[in-house]
């Protein structure tokens, strides 16, 4: 529970599917009326193909916060990966959260089963017993698929009870889809075995059968009766409207609520609860019932045309968004891009790691899909100038309290993935079938755009790093000769009418230190001298390593007197290193400096003079004089 509401987590895929949306709509309404709030954890795939690119979508279920969730509902029918369902059930059960599996039996969850068997049986009996048709065939789903085989058994049972003989020649497999169904009808027509009634295992096949019959000159239902099963929206708009069977989604939602309330009261639960499928009689079986139901085909066609045009407009918009994101210079510009197109009721949340250009998304390896701290990149109607904005993952949304306390819409979270890995999620706040149909469009566009942007950004970072490496001394981290001379013009441009100090710095006694203490000691001394130069108090300066123990400094000064500050600063920094290191050898350097006005500087000439002074300084040291 949170903010006074009990939270129910619904795990489902393809929320834009008509049947799935109707289920969500009914469940949200029933839960809302009884003091619950629905959180939807959604994937755009059902994992049927088990592809690597789908794996990242499973990460969305990592966001379920069992500290606030009071129940988990899994629309198991929508997931073709049983391992995933088992994992969700195990996680919820481990937190002692009641779990309801909808559509499939799981031993560790309470199951709500749609009574497909009795529903399909009612259709078969309607054709054979109420219409008295004895010449029938069946178009089943996929061979070996559980629901398809079960409906075949029901068909055989009704035939037997009516003293009718089942024949394998009268059984066809349409794979629950259009193409194989049309082929099956074509085969019946070609063989001259077209029956009086075709009983289909789902509505999509029944619609395809009707179309193929009409194309071949047969009239439905006058010459051939056709029935379906599932009660999809398209069945009602078929010509003639399709006799089918469907589940009352409100009954399903109420059954879920009843199970949840029994679990809260610690009442014993059945393993399986049933929800009936009921006949929905229309015209395709020959019944006159509902023959005059009010369907305006013209309005329906106009609606479909408008929706298609809107879909095309959305595609063009999303293409523009994608191109703009790829042209962004920083994640901060994401919000500006999305704000320009005014996406309705969405919130884009990404891993903090996505802001790190050094991370290659194609190579990153993670234990958890989401960071403990996430970044809100965009939120509709918010001041997106503030984004990216950090947010703890457990908050899941910046305005969660408002959504829970005030809003009636469910909260839908769906993952953003790239190359099979999740990098964030999208909160979808709109609650309308047409809006839910856009989820896949939004997710794929934003996922690919953000993912590709990260690749481009990482390539730029890598290129810059390689360029920096080519201009940087590997041991000390200061510029090498090439990098020094490339950066020099920018420094001199800053100097303007000021002075420039050119210093030649040479490490003392490097050969002796290498010979006596080893090259690691020599490297320590070289790095110490470079760090001592880096610590001198000049805001505008360059340091370069030109050779093994030779370094060059160029610094901007306000007065000639600051030349002494450079020398003393290096000596002082080296003295500190020697005191703290406790090494048996000293890190020391000989220094020669020349100071000239910036507008009269000949750098190479100044460096030549500084070199001469440095060698004179080194010679005095060897002679025992400073």
Model description:
There is one protein chain. Helices cover 43% and strands 20% of the residues. The strands form three sheets. The chain has a twelve-stranded mixed beta sheet with strand order 10-11-5-4-3-1-2-15-16-12-13-14, sandwiched between helices. A five-stranded mixed beta sheet has the order 17-19-20-18-21, sandwiched between helices. The protein is α/β, with parallel strands linked by helices and 626 residues long. Helix 6 links the parallel strand 8 and strand 9. It starts with 5 loop residues before the first strand and ends with a helix. The protein is built from 18 helices and 21 strands. It has three domains: 271 residues, no CATH class; 147 residues, Response regulator (Rossmann fold), CATH 3.40.50; 144 residues, Alpha-Beta Plaits, CATH 3.30.70.270. The radius of gyration is 37 Å and the shape is elongated. Helix 1 crosses helix 8, helix 9 runs parallel beside helix 13 and helix 16 packs across helix 17.
SSE topology:
Elements lengths: L5 E8 L4 H15 L3 E8 L25 E6 L7 H13 L4 E4 L7 E6 H15 L5 E5 L5 H16 L9 E3 L4 H14 L5 E4 L2 H13 L9 E3 L5 H5 L6 E4 L1 H16 L7 E9 L16 H30 L5 H10 L4 E6 L21 E7 L9 E4 L7 H6 L5 E8 L2 E8 L4 H4 L2 H32 L8 E2 H15 L3 E9 L2 H8 L1 H16 L6 E5 L4 E8 L4 H20 L7 E9 L5 H20 L4
Parallel strand pairs: 1-2, 1-3, 2-15, 3-4, 4-5, 5-11, 6-7, 6-8, 8-9, 17-19
Antiparallel strand pairs: 10-11, 12-13, 12-16, 13-14, 15-16, 18-20, 18-21, 19-20
Helix pairs in contact: 1-8, 3-4, 5-6, 9-10, 9-13, 15-16, 16-17
